[in-house]
Amino acid sequence: MKSATRFLKRFACLALAAILSLTCLAACGGGANDAPPLYSAGLVTKLVEAGAFSEELEELDADTAFLLYRLADSGLVKKEDVFCYTFAAPAVSVEAAEEGYENIFNIVNETDLVTQVPLSAWGYRRYGVDKPLPTGDAALFDGMNRQYKALSGQEYAAYRDPETVERITAAVRRLAPSTSSANMELIAAILNGDLEELSRLMKQGGALSMGRTALRLSAELAPLLGQEQEALRSAHCMAGYYSWLSASPS
Predict the structure, then answer these.
(1) Dihedral angle at the C-alpha atoms of 100, 106, 111, 113, nearest 10 degrees?
(2) Is 50 exceeded by the pLDDT of residue 11?
(3) Could you report the per-residue pLDDT of 75-116, keeping only the tens digit for each?
(4) Sheet harboring 84-87: ordered strands across?
(5) Burial degree of 189 (CB within 10 A; 0-12, 13-18, 19+)
(6) Contact, 187 vs 16, CB < 8 A?
(7) Distances (CA, A) of 58 to 42, 82, 128, 213
(8) Residue 71 in contact with residue 108, Cβ under 8 Å?
């Protein structure tokens, strides 16, 4: 039972991150995309069940990277000799730490919704050291926008409401203040569109108020997500990250 509960919490957190990520990724760069999805819901579930995101696998990756990529042949014989740079990475673990992972650098756009999930209020963070992009420096915007337009053919879409990301994450936190099984079961049911399970949960003690909260927050966020769709894409896509890096003085 404990194993099932842990899996449900993990799946719900990953699902939440995936749904919010897809909001930003959909048609990133503009244009329609009628291609079939790369990963079906069934395949994603199988990957999670197989431990594809397990802490054990992360340790295995570190230990076997030298063999797989012949790093020792290049004179790289210690972890301290390897440096990793991530871009637009979400929070990945409640056990993530900076100490011991100082050679991992996370390039983060703090206005990118994907980098804010799963929520830090739930204890999630990234391994290594975060390196924020200078998105708050208005003096850099014009130069960044020129680079972005050269790459994408479009203007960089700024948020109409500067507090969009904060409002979205705050809404999710109001719905699920913690990763308790009740909260995660409700989120999983909402994200999976499981109306039967959602109905069951709402009939349980206390779940009805959560269900009402979910409906209220959906009504609040739906217009916001629609209004800010282009800005969410700009903040997350690779052209945006590259353009902000190019405009950065350091």
Answers:
(1) -80
(2) no
(3) 666 777 778 899 999 988 888 777 778 888 999 999 999 999
(4) 84-87, 104-108, 129-132
(5) buried
(6) yes
(7) 23, 15, 14, 36
(8) no
Angle at 198 between CA 197 and CA 203, to 5 degrees: 100
Per-residue 3-state assignment (H helix, E strand, C coil) for the chain: CHHHHHHHHHHHHHHHHHHHHHHHHCCCCCCCCCCCCCCCHHHHHHHHHCCCCCHHHHHHHHHHHHHHCCHHHHCCCCHHHCCEEEECCCCCECCCCCCCCCCEEEEECCCCHHHHCCCHHHCCECCCEEEECCCCCHHHHHHHHHHHHHHHCCCCCCCCCCCHHHHHHHHHHHHCCCCCHHHHHHHHHHHHCCHHHHHHHHHCCCHHHHHHHHHHHHHHHHHHHHHCHHHHHHHHCHHHHHHHHHHCCC
With 0-12 / 13-18 / 19 or more C-beta atoms within 10 angstroms meaning exposed / middle / buried, residue 12 is buried
Would you state the structure tokens that stand for residue 19, as one six-digit string? 């749904």
The model's pLDDT over 154-208, given as tens digits with 9 standing for 90+, comes to 999 999 999 999 988 888 788 778 777 666 676 666 656 666 776 776 666 555 5
Residue type, 31: G
> If you search the block for the tokens 């919490």, which residue do you land on?
9
Asked if residue 106 lies in contact with residue 89, where contact means CB atoms within 8 angstroms, the answer is yes
As a whole number, the mean pLDDT across the chain is 74
Residue in 230, 226, 228, 224 with CA at minimum distance from that of residue 155: 230
At a CB cut-off of 8 Å and minimum separation 6, what does 217 contact? 171, 172, 174, 175
